Each structure stands twice: as structure tokens, then as C-alpha cells.
Amino acid sequence: MNRRWVVNASPLIVLAKISQIHLLSELCGDIIVPNGVVAEINIAPDDNPAKLWMVALRLVDE
Known about the structure:
Elements: E1 4-6, H1 9-17, H2 22-27, E2 30-32, H3 35-42, H4 49-56
Parallel strand pairs: 1-2
């Protein structure tokens, strides 16, 4: 079954901080990150794990 999840900032931040962000893609097929969540995480410092994950996925610029 292909699942589609819409995630807010909290799970992205927490999972990235504990190096478990990969769990999202293992548990669901598609991850939808709303623009507001992208904007919220994008204002974090450049070394923030959630921001680095979003940069790797090209959701935000480096």
C-alpha cells in the first residue's frame, strides 16, 4: 500500500536530530512537506539536521 503523509516541522526536526529521518521514507511512500513547514525549517541555522535533510532533497537552497 502506497501511503502519503503530510508532515509538520516537529517530526522532521526531532527525527533529524536523532538521525532517524530515514524512518519517514521507510514508513510511507510519499512525504509532503507544506511550504509553511519548509519556511519554518529554512530559518534554522545552516547546520540544523532538518534543514540539511531538506537541502539534500532540494526543498531549499543551500
